[in-house]
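Dear H.,

Thanks for agreeing to be a second pair of eyes. The structure we're designing against is below in token form, covering all 362 positions.
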């Protein structure tokens, strides 16, 4: 049997594929457009008998149709997306194309494919859509966490595009009986995350002696989940989830951004002390806030715990230590990512040139 994953060369997708390949011989096809966020270094060493990369766009009906006809997957896991909120504020169009129209195209192709299946193949087929807690909007400090029943109130072009995709997925279950599953997960962190996102950006900026940019007052709260816990939850939903249902996935680790920054600095203070003996926390710099910045996300994970037996394995402290360790000990991966277009992003967004001469080597 075979499964098809989209966006598998990105952060969560590559961690999912590595986990999957470690525990199963079932072949995995990865359809990935290889945008700036898709990284061939993540998966190059996998055995071609169990892993195949197809470089292509989820928006292209012919590409998707050909893969489905050739490989006849028992499941499709849709992770492909434009995923960075800040980029969606500068340039929202690509978010609509990939996140909305791409998901629509996958659903249409899956519907046509599903209609050709019969018997056990049809019973087994699943379309699993990986979404985000950001579709629910922002919580006040005393609000209860997001449940599966929380209303959709997206606030950024990114979250609005993910919300639109979620609605399409739901409609394909109600209208066409396509056996869909949707997951809404909180903030992931861990190895192989592109360092435009908060945690890897801070780890690398701390280690290289750059400032640690904190938007606004830094008291915004996120519920952090270690990426392999998210991957375990996705596997549980794929195996045991009820078609048509949605499942919230969280890390049971609500933290504000300043506390996350300080925790990162503490670990790096131990592993790579500054030459002047001060804490890396002196590099923390408050910068202009993100427009429409959501104040707090939090996830109620009761449904996935009770129905599918999932709770996260790693505490935030354990996960953060493993993550810092990974970035400090994979300088080749880091250097390849930090070259080229990544620098253009830093210049555009933070208005800073990465000053080579002042950089420390990892
Ligand atoms: P990422 O940006 O690291 O990776 C996205 C991948 O999708 C890349 O490999 C990219 O090349 C690929 N891609 C982009 N457009 C494509 C297209 N048109 N066709 C085919 N491939 C395309 O993202 P991530 O952080 O790994 O997130 C994966 C999924 O999980 C996304 O759907 C995201 O919305 C969701 N999610 C992410 C988080 C998080 O904290 N990172 C949390 C909850 C949900
Ligand atoms: O909640 C799930 C979502 O988490 C996913 O759907 C998104 O794909 C993922 O990018 C993430 O979105 P966030 O906007 O929460 O993540 P980001 O890493 O961009 O920011 C985390 C917090 O840190 C947020 O409050 C903004 C803040 N931040 C971020 C950056 C990049 C800063 O203070 N400074 C920064 O330089």
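And this is the sequence the design step returned. I haven't edited it by hand at all.
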């Amino acid at each position: 049997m075979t499964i098809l994953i989209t966006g598998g060369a990105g952060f969560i997708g590559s961690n999912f594929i590595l986990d999957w390949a470690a525990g199963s011989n079932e072949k995995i096809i990865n359809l990935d457009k290889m945008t700036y966020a898709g990284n061939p270094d993540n998966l190059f060493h996998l055995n071609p008998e169990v892993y195949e990369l197809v470089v292509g766009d989820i928006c292209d009906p012919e590409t998707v149709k050909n893969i489905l006809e050739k490989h006849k997957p028992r499941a499709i896991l849709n992770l492909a997306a434009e995923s960075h909120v800040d980029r969606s504020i500068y340039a929202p169009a690509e978010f609509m194309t990939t996140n909305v129209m791409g998901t629509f195209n996958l659903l249409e192709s899956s519907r046509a494919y599903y209609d050709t299946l019969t018997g056990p193949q049809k019973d087994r087929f699943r379309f699993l859509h990986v979404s985000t807690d950001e579709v629910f909007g922002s919580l006040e400090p005393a609000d209860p966490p997001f449940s599966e029943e929380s209303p959709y109130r997206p606030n950024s072009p990114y979250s609005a595009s993910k919300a639109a995709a979620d609605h399409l997925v739901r409609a394909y279950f109600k209208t066409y009986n396509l056996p869909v599953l949707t997951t809404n997960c909180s903030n992931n962190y861990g190895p192989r995350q592109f360092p435009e996102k908060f945690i890897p950006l801070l780890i690398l900026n701390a280690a290289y002696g750059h400032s640690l940019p904190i938007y606004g007052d830094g008291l915004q709260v996120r519920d952090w989940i270690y990426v392999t816990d998210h991957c375990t939850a996705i596997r549980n939903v794929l195996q045991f989830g009820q078609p048509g249902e949605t499942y919230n996935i969280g890390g049971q680790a609500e933290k504000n951004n300043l506390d996350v920054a300080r925790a990162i600095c503490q670990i790096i203070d131990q592993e790579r002390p500054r030459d002047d003996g001060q804490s890396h926390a002196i590099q923390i710099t408050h910068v202009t806030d993100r427009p429409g910045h959501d104040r707090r996300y939090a996830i109620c994970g009761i449904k996935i715990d009770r129905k599918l037996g999932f709770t996260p394995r790693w505490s935030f402290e354990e996960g953060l230590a493993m993550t810092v360790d990974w970035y400090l000990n994979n300088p080749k991966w880091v250097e390849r990512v930090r070259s080229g277009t990544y620098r253009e992003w830093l210049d555009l967004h933070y208005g800073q040139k990465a000053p080579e001469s002042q950089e420390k080597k990892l």
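Two observations from my side: The radius of gyration is 20 Å. The CA atoms of residues 103 and 165 lie 6 Å apart.

Warmly,
E.
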